[in-house]
Design goal:
alpha+beta, 22% strand, 241 residues
């Protein structure tokens, strides 16, 4: 299967602006099915990192009532269309998928995928607003990659998960009891509470809602998706979008 995409506007974790599109008059693409055309150099294969970036784009999945479910890949979205399971969509197409060639017409099938897709049917109550999995990646994203003791910004490899109430003193490994901490602050705090260590927290830890979690877990959110997700955020959200 070959893929191409329309211009994407990235909100988080990447530069915005139009992406090159494949020229339909260019020669057949190289292995991998994708080629870009430059006015200066003509057709050229898409670099592997560009293909990886394309595959990193996630489409927002909703149920028929418009309730947010999860992110999905373009492959999963294409399967929804193949099963005629799409109820409605939002946003301008952001990905173009080229399928097989019809034996009857000789034409290749083309599917334009929008950034937000609602599937037929209704989600089970247990599938709505589930508790986000507590992972270091999600935790560091919640805390904006800051050490909540010294306030310094760190890259992911230089952050740790600190239990505000130490586990050895009955603290639990839950969202409301963990914060991002640099190695130095975590070591200095040791097996003590912030009060005992005289290291006050810069923010109170909290459990993000499912919508907040989806925003935190995706660095390539498209403009239409972000607009929709913002409208679904709880009124008391602490998330800065």
């Amino acid at each position: 299967m070959e893929t191409d995409r329309a211009p994407l506007r990235l909100i988080l974790g990447g530069a915005s602006g139009p992406a090159p599109r494949r020229d339909p008059d260019s020669p057949a693409p190289h292995a991998g099915g994708i080629a870009l055309r430059s006015a200066a150099t003509g057709p050229r294969p898409v670099p592997r990192n560009a293909i990886e970036r394309l595959n990193s784009v996630r489409l927002l999945s909703l149920d028929a009532c418009g309730r947010v479910l999860d992110w999905m890949s373009w492959q999963d979205a294409a399967c929804l269309y193949a099963r005629d399971a799409v109820a409605w969509t939002l946003g301008e197409p952001c990905l173009r998928v080229h399928g097989g060639t019809s034996r009857l017409t000789g034409e290749q099938s083309v599917l334009d995928l929008p950034p937000i897709i609602a599937a037929r049917g209704h989600a089970r109550a247990s599938a709505l607003d589930p508790t986000p999995a507590l992972t270091n990646a999600a935790l560091f994203a919640r805390d904006s990659y800051l050490c909540l003791y010294c306030g310094q910004h760190f890259s992911r490899p230089h952050l740790t998960r600190d239990h505000v109430q130490p586990v050895s003193k009955g603290g639990r490994d839950i969202w409301e009891n963990v914060v991002s901490a640099c190695f130095s602050c975590n070591s200095r705090k040791g097996n003590r509470t912030p009060q005992q260590a005289h290291m006050p927290l810069l923010a109170v830890p909290y459990r993000p809602s499912w919508v907040e979690h989806l925003i935190l877990s995706n660095r390539n959110i498209l403009a239409d998706q972000m607009t929709f997700l913002r409208s679904q955020l709880p009124k008391n959200t602490r998330l800065v979008t």
